[in-house]
Amino acid sequence: MKILVIGAGNMGLTYSEGMATSPLLSNHNLRIFDTDPKKRLALDEISHFDVFANLEDCLPNADLVFIAVKPYHSDDLFEKMKPMINQSQIFISLMAGVTIKSIQDRLGAKKVVRTMPNLPAQVGKGVTSYTESEEVSRIELLMIRNLLDTTGESIHVDTEKFVDASTGISGSGPAYVFYFMQSMLEAALKMGFSDYDSKVLVSSTFEGAVELFNQSDLTPESWMDRVASKGGTTRAALDSMDDNNVKELIKEAAYAAFDRAVELGK
After folding, report:
1. What confidence tens digit (pLDDT) does each residue in 95-112 have?
2. Which residue range or ranges hold the Pyrroline-5-carboxylate reductase catalytic N-terminal domain (predicted)?
3. DSSP strand E in the chain: where?
4. Which residue intervals of the chain bear CATH 3.40.50.720?
5. Position 26 pLDDT exceeds 80
6. Whole-angstrom distance, CA of residue 3 vs CA of residue 73
7. Does the annotation flag 68 for ligand binding?
8. CATH 1.10.3730.10 residue spans of the chain
9. Is it the case that residue 266 has pLDDT exceeding 80?
10. In 3-state terms, what secondary structure has residue 144?
11. Residue 121 in contact with residue 15, Cβ under 8 Å?
12. Contacts for 201 with CB less than 8 Å, ≥ 6 apart
């Protein structure tokens, strides 16, 4: 099977690295197309990639095509791709806010899978939600899921509404975590800890809390109740957050990302 990734940015390269070891490649190198000569030069040094500067050399005979460019680059790209594609090919979009119908109409393709990846895919801890056009078969979808799983986990959703919704949770979600971490780092520094100690305190706390959550059936609320005793230090912190409406603000932030994903799709 011939797999082509168009775009070697953060997400394109992340999925390329993950998929390059998949048995679905059947001893073929993964193909990458990018317009940047410097990127191509660097990628040429990687033995499991075949790197291309021209679409006509790699697109027409590709079986699966992952599109990993910025959404605003898609119009020009699709115009160039359209004369070279065939209806047996499957196109998997990693672009935020670009609907299946939009891809079908502009590219002239039938088989389209839309995904929402996230940044932890770079360390094999990603989560990718995905859905497909009706022309994609179950067998083809299973094959695509196996490829998506090379960067972490994947979640099949019934409609594109849930792809947009996952943008507000998992797609944009790492930034919310980094926002919280940055706030705690600044608090630690203000308390007098060194840069190194602040980083250890914050990162280890997040890592440990996530591990506790993953290894039990307890909800986050139950864990908070276990940690926060009446009149204690943790309860003081949680009460401060409640008084400042932090939970509702976080929900509003997630919905803001969701609404923006829907808006981009229009």
Report:
1. 988 999 999 999 999 999
2. 2-97
3. 3-6, 30-33, 49-52, 64-67, 90-93, 112-116, 126-132, 152-156
4. 3-157
5. no
6. 21
7. yes
8. 172-265
9. no
10. helix
11. yes
12. 184, 188, 193
Question: Which structure tokens are listed for 223?
Answer: 């864990």
The confidence score (pLDDT) of residue 224 equals: 94
**Is 32 one of the annotated binding-site residues?**
no
73 in helix, strand or coil? helix
Q: 113 a known binding residue?
A: no
Query: Residue 61 has which token pair?
Result: 């005979």
Closest CA relative to residue 253, chosen from 199, 178, 156, 186: 178
236 is in an annotated binding site: no
| Six token digits for residue 24 | 């679905």
Q: CATH second-level architecture of 3-157?
A: 3-Layer(aba) Sandwich (3.40)
165 is an annotated ligand-binding site residue:
no
> In this structure, what token pair is assigned to residue 261?
């994903």
* Residue 8 marked in a binding site: yes
Residue count of the chain: 266
Residue that is written with structure tokens 């993950």 in the block:
18
Pairing of strands 126-132, 112-116: antiparallel
The 10s digit of each residue's pLDDT in 156-202 is 999 999 999 999 999 999 999 999 999 999 999 999 999 999 999 99
Q: Is 69 annotated as a binding residue?
A: yes
Contact 13, 121 (CB under 8 A): no
Average pLDDT value over all residues in the chain: 94
